[in-house]
Amino acid sequence: MIRRLVLENGAVFQGEAFGSIENGMGEVVFNTGMTGYQEILSDPSYCGQIVTLTYPLIGNYGINRDDFESITPYVRGFIVKELCQLPSNWRSTYTLDEYLKIKNIPGLSGIDTRKLTRMIRTAGTLKGVFAGADEDTDVLVQKLKQTTLPKDQVSQVSTKTAYPSPGRGKRIVLVDFGMKHGILRELNKRHCDVVVVPHHITGEEVLQLKPDGVMLSNGPGDPEDVPEAIEMIQTIIGKVPLFGICLGHQLFALACGAKTEKMKFGHRGSNHPVKELKTGKVSITSQNHSYTVSSVDDTPLEVTHLAVNDHTIEGLKHKYEPAFTVQYHPEASPGPEDANHLFDQFLEMIESIEKEGVAVCRSV
After folding, report:
1. Taking every annotated instance into account, which residue ranges of this chain make up the domain Carbamoyl-phosphate synthase small subunit N-terminal (predicted)?
2. Is the domain of 141 the same as that of 224?
3. Which residues are catalytic?
4. Which domain holds residue 41?
């Protein structure tokens, strides 16, 4: 069946439909990863977006039960150059086509994804809509121009109620703004006693859980659309050690008086080099974000990491309180594990603060 992608700039890409028969609208973005399409598909940070994969052959190892980053995918569409219908992998339980049908997500294959990617890099991210062969292009373009995409993505993907992931180690409150399961896996691997809480939790409610530390998760959309989270972070800074990832990094920055802005086409892929300013060490990182921290002037924040490619801010720490954040994904699903040690650094910071507290108590 023929399916078209119509963009707000009037461009049209025609190819073969797969997945759901329903058509959808969203912001068209691209990811440069060569592998990991299942993790990309199930990453809540893509909520409301139509994802283009630049690697030409997708679906060749199918879909398995273990590599999901959320139970429910929130992407509005999936675009590939060539779709593999006969995957070869002993873990595979569905083809990509079968899985998208189950989850009611439309797909498009057989288009020039290189051309589409270059267009996005030139014009910036664009609104797009999937359509049938007979639908009027001019009408669709006009509709796209008049449509404002939803800004409540975090409320769509965050858990509605708190729940535990028990362990015998440090009590970590994980604030879910669109959490990837990889973050929870890394904390569980370190025996943490995790309580996952919704995005609208207040600072007082966080502190009532008596955490040893607080993690701010990744998530979709503009950080300025989550003012309640900014207020929560302002309440807990200095009262409990804090570690933020991606959207959590941006929200932490805003809570400290920094500024954020939307990027032209964002960072999405598993091969982004990031430099740690203190040591000069470069790590290859997994990234997925549309917004960046643009300025930390006149704030209590220090820049710790920069992107090698475009020099955008990739890491922050508070100058006076036990808190640090990164824009990239140390849980790396998919992606390299160069930055995985940041979870250990977080727990070491907690232990250090606890030892200082004991020392102060003994000296009084």
Report:
1. 1-131
2. no
3. 246, 329, 331
4. 2-146
